[in-house]
Amino acid sequence: TLEAPVFAKYLALPAALETVARIHGVRFRMTGSGSACFAFAEEGVDPEAIRRTLVGCWGSGTWFCDTRLSP
């Protein structure tokens, strides 16, 4: 994956994702191409709170999408 080289170059990525993990207990991963980050969260996790944390780290231009998988 491209996670290690991308995180080494763009320090705001690992810093923000570590903050989300610490505050919300959600661990993000990077897609294989390095184009996006994603996470699988347990029921009850507040996606709006995660979005606010990321916006606080990266600014108002942050794009965030909450998607659910059907059982």
Note down, in words, how this protein is organized.
- By secondary structure, this protein is mainly alpha-helical.
- The chain has three helices and two strands.
- The chain has a two-stranded antiparallel sheet.
- A hairpin with a 6-residue loop joins strand 1 and strand 2.
- The longest helix is centred in the first third of the chain and has 13 residues.
- The chain is globular, with a radius of gyration of 12 Å.
- It starts with a helix and ends in a 13-residue tail after the last helix.
Strand tally: 2
Shape: globular
Supply the number of helical segments.
Answer: 3
Low-confidence sequence ranges: none
Main sheet strand line-up: 1-2
Proportion of residues in helical segments = 40-55%
* Percent range for β-strand residues: 5-15%
Give me the secondary-structure category: mainly alpha
Series of H and E elements: HHEEH
How is the biggest beta sheet arranged? 2 strands, antiparallel
Distance between the termini: 28 Å
Mean pLDDT: 91
Give the tags.
single chain; 2 strands; 45% helix; mainly alpha; 71 residues; two-stranded antiparallel ribbon
Summarize the entry for a quick read.
Helix content is 45%, strand content 6%. With 71 residues, the protein is mainly α.
